[in-house]
Amino acid sequence: MARRGKSVREKGKLKLSSYFESFEDGDNVALVIDYGVAASLPKRLQGFSGKVAGSRGKYKIVEIKDGNKLKTFIVHPVHLKKL
Fold first, then answer.
1. Torsion 22-24-25-28 (CA) sign
2. Which of 12, 15, 58, 83 has CA atoms 20 to 30 A from the CA of 37?
3. Which pTM does this prediction carry?
4. In this structure, is residue 7 part of a structural domain?
5. Per-residue confidence of the chain (83 residues) as pLDDT tens digits?
């Protein structure tokens, strides 16, 4: 049976490698919300995939297709995972 979520030792733990991970424009990413860091995006977008469109300081602009609409979100790299 597949395990869901984090193990007990990983809960609440912030990995510095994910905090400082770099993404280029055009990279395909998945939104994986890390609850150890405040996220300014809706919970329902957990697991959605999109494309990095640019950056604003250390944050990344991610374009996600929600139904038929293309939406843009400004997200901290901690909540992004390369595909």
1. negative
2. 83
3. 0.80
4. no
5. 566 777 777 777 777 888 788 999 999 999 998 877 888 788 888 899 999 999 999 899 999 998 899 999 999 999 999 99
